[in-house]
Amino acid sequence: MYEDLRWLGIEWSEGPDCGGACGPYTQSERRGHYLRAWETLRERGMIYPCTCSRKDVGVAAGAPNEGDDEPVYPGTCRPTVGQRSFAPHDLVPSTLLRAGSDPVPHNPAGLNWRFRVPDGEEICFTDLHLGPQRFVAGRDFGDFIVWRRDDVPAYQLAVVVDDASMGITEVVRGADLLKSTARQILLFRALGLSVPDYFHCDLVRDEAGVRLAKRHDALSIRKLRELGWSAERVRAGDGEVL
Q1: How big is the chain by its Cα radius of gyration, in Å?
Q2: Whether the Cβ atoms of residue 196 and residue 170 lie closer than 8 Å to each other
Q3: 105 pairs with which residues across the strands?
Q4: Side by side, which strands form the sheet with 47-50?
Q5: Domains of the chain (ranges, CATH numbers)
Q6: Residues 70-77: contacts with CB within 8 Å, 24+ apart?
Q7: What is the model's pLDDT at position 89?
Q8: E strands along the chain, which residues?
């Protein structure tokens, strides 16, 4: 990826390959950051353990799935109002951090942990490219996973923690992640962190309107290089189907 990005003419001032003031930049080395965020959410009663598999959620009644987004969680393991929102200490994903110690994996029950969304709350933001956006928690998306059963942080929690700790002020990514932005805004607020600005790019699609992806046999940048494409041609996008 580094080689392909440099070939495209993209340069960066910080990263796993060149260091910087906000390291480490490899997520496997940032476990302590994610655990502290997880513990904050747990202490505030904003997450709960869940035994449901992805298949369980997918086949549950009332769990629609729109496009590539995950189905809305039907609330199978969600605590009722006033109910204890987390299991005994032996179900937490890791031992609590002590000053100067490394986190030790400790998730014998193999549980997912979900963030309890505020049902009916509107999450609104203005995308720097696509304009005003509005999503309703509990309708457009449900309780989502922040810690996985294999004892690693889920995408939604990891990127929020990384963006906040690295001082990111503008996030640029594909329009397929608009709904994820709404989820992440809820996490930023729950953790008392500043929300960055977002710019969601239009997706590159083929002649049938399907977005280019490896699962659809779309060609990689490396393959285009092998076929003789120049970096200028790839950046410009000359209208050919890849």
Answers
A1: 20
A2: yes
A3: 94
A4: 47-50, 112-115, 144-147
A5: 2-203 (3.40.50.620)
A6: 70/141, 70/144, 71/142, 72/138, 72/139, 72/140, 72/141, 72/142, 73/114, 73/142, 73/143, 73/144, 74/142, 75/142, 75/143, 76/50, 76/52, 77/48, 77/49, 77/50, 77/51, 77/52, 77/114
A7: 42
A8: 47-50, 112-115, 122-127, 131-136, 144-147, 170-174, 197-201
- Distance separating alpha carbons of residues 198 and 184, to the nearest angstrom: 11
Residue with tokens 């353990």: 49
Q: Report which residue type is found at 220.
A: S
- In a structure prediction context, what are the per-residue pLDDT tens digits for the chain, which is 242 residues long? 899 999 999 999 999 999 999 999 999 999 999 999 999 999 999 999 999 988 888 777 455 555 567 889 999 999 986 555 444 344 444 444 444 444 444 454 578 999 999 999 999 999 999 999 999 999 999 999 999 999 999 999 999 999 999 999 999 999 999 999 999 999 999 999 999 999 999 987 777 777 777 666 677 888 889 999 999 998 886 555 44
Give the torsion sign (CA, 61, 66, 68, 70). negative
The residues with which 56 forms a beta bridge, in sequence order, are none
Q: Please give the backbone phi and psi of residue 43, each rounded to the nearest 5 degrees, phi first.
A: -60, -30
How would you class 111 by CB atoms within 10 Å of its CB: exposed for 0-12, middle for 13-18, buried for 19 or more? buried
How far apart CA 63 and CA 141 sit, in angstroms, is 10
Q: Where are the beta strands (DSSP E) in 19-130?
A: 47-50, 112-115, 122-127
